[in-house]
Design brief:
Helices cover 0% and strands 28% of the residues. The protein has no helices and 5 strands.
Length: 74
Amino acid sequence: MPIYEYVCTDCNTRFDAIRSMKDADAPIACQQCQGTHTTRQISVFYAQSGGRVVAGGNTGCAGCAGGTCSTCGH
């Protein structure tokens, strides 16, 4: 099962949960305050191959894995 990231809008706690894909957007209680005002976040990841970064880990925008692009100007 996938791991999803959530944030609680009541206490601003971020937490992970292992849930089935069909339950990914279903309500889930906050692990800190037990509040139910939580939303699923977009997960980021980092991948490296042969000593170079192939996904994530850059300081630019999502479209410029090399760190420079005309879209964001980084």
